[in-house]
Amino acid sequence: MKASSRPGDRPDRSRRLRPVDTPDDELVVAELYRTYHRPLLSFVVRLTRGDVQWAEDVVQETMVRAWRSADRFDADASSLMPWLATVARHIVIDDQRRKDARPHEAGEGPLESVPMPDQMEDLLRQVVVSDALDSLSPAHREILNETVLRDRSVNDAAEALGIPVGTVKSRAYYALRALRVALEERGVTA
User: Where is this chain compositionally biased, Basic and acidic residues type (predicted)?
Assistant: First the structure.
């Protein structure tokens, strides 16, 4: 460890950083933070356009990276500030790229003013169709249920109902005609 050249100055223990294993190592980390926190924070606040919370996070991450990379520092360097500033700048750039890659959050405000479609018309249509279906004969309801609502082919409907394919075709034809008449009676037109 080198002593500072000016009398009364504290030695720069941050040059010999390594993983914190002993109380002496904690002093080194504390000295690094004490020496460089304020100037680094001022620099990073400008990089983050005044976002102090983000700047604090960047400084914290920079200090962690400095602590982890302590064995690579130049022992003859007069200050770690240039290296710390470069690391902090890269962290800010990476954070900004991550934010730009994600879509912006919408928040609650704009969603409150989005018009919602009126569901009343759909509900009314369902009631009318249901009422028209109820007015059909059980055989017609059954054939429409199998062919239209369950989306079965004529062959599958015939097998499910246990009736011939020709009967399914004719019942489906007459059931649809009866349903059309029932809907027209209720004011529904094509």
Answer: 7-20, 96-107
**DSSP character string of 18-84:** ----SHHHHHHHHHHHHHHHHHHHHHHHHHTTT-HHHHHHHHHHHHHHHHHTGGGS-TT-S-SHHHH
Nearest Cα neighbor of 77 from 18, 131, 128, 14 is: 14
* C-alpha closest to that of 58 among 17, 12, 92: 92
Sign of CA dihedral 38, 44, 50, 52: negative
The label of the residue with tokens 């369950």 reads: 150
- Our CA dihedral for 11, 15, 20, 21, rounded to 10 degrees, sits at -80
Q: In Å, how far are 90, 136, 146, 149, 184 from 139, measured between CA atoms?
A: 75, 8, 11, 15, 21
Q: Which two tokens stand for residue 75?
A: 């022992």
Tell me, rounded to whole angstroms, the distance of Cα 17 from its chain centroid.
39
pTM value is 0.43
DSSP state for residue 154 in the 8-state scheme: H
Question: How many of the other CB atoms lie within 10 Å of CB of 113?
Answer: 6
Tokens 């027209």 label which residue? Answer: 184
